[in-house]
Amino acid sequence: xxxxxxxxxxxxxxxxxxxxxxxxxxxxxxxxxxxxxxxxxxxxxxxxxxxxxxxxxxxxxxxxxxxxxxxxxxxxxxxxxxxxxxxxxxxxxxxxxxxxxxxxxxxxxxxxxxxxxxxxxxxxxxxxxxxxxxxxxxxxxxxxxxxxxxxxxxxxxxxxxxxxxxxxxxxxxxxxxxxxxxxxxxxxxxxxxxxxxx
Length: 198
What we know:
The protein has helices at 9-22, 31-37, 59-80, 104-111, 132-136, 157-167, 172-183, 188-197; strands at 26-28, 41-45, 50-55, 91-96, 118-122. By secondary structure, it is of the alpha/beta class. It folds into two domains: 9-140, Trna Endonuclease, Chain: A, domain 1, CATH 3.40.1350; 157-197, no CATH class. It has a five-stranded mixed beta sheet with strand order 1-2-3-4-5, sandwiched between helices. α3 (59-80) links the parallel β3 (50-55) and β4.
């Protein structure tokens, strides 16, 4: 979508669907959710989690409606997943509005209320252009390592981490100790201390 397109809740909804679909999410709608919280929502699911994304035209409607949206996501998780399914613990509620909130504290209160599900909040302060939506949805998107610290034969971000740390000035012995400690699920501070004493 062009950057200059006027941002509305519908434009954000369409772009969010496209962004998550390109990240291999399966997009669906839930008629009960739409009946409860309105038409501007969809459900996205990947092998790791479930997202309910809701867009609002104004900050005040987001502020008034986010708890009902949270309730719908909890209902969806309870109906579709057993407690033993790892996805049951990976529910995300993405709340978007093109309208500025003017109240960063209120945004943070919603964002950091993780009692029932995790929340992502995007408002007119963080979404100036449609391309900014990718940054807001970043916690839901797969890691893209691109060319950052790539080494021949490296297969994952963890394998590349030592090189990335070394490039940023970390002593090679410490960088390798941190990576090995992470792989073995050892306390990282102890790994660093041991590497520094060698």
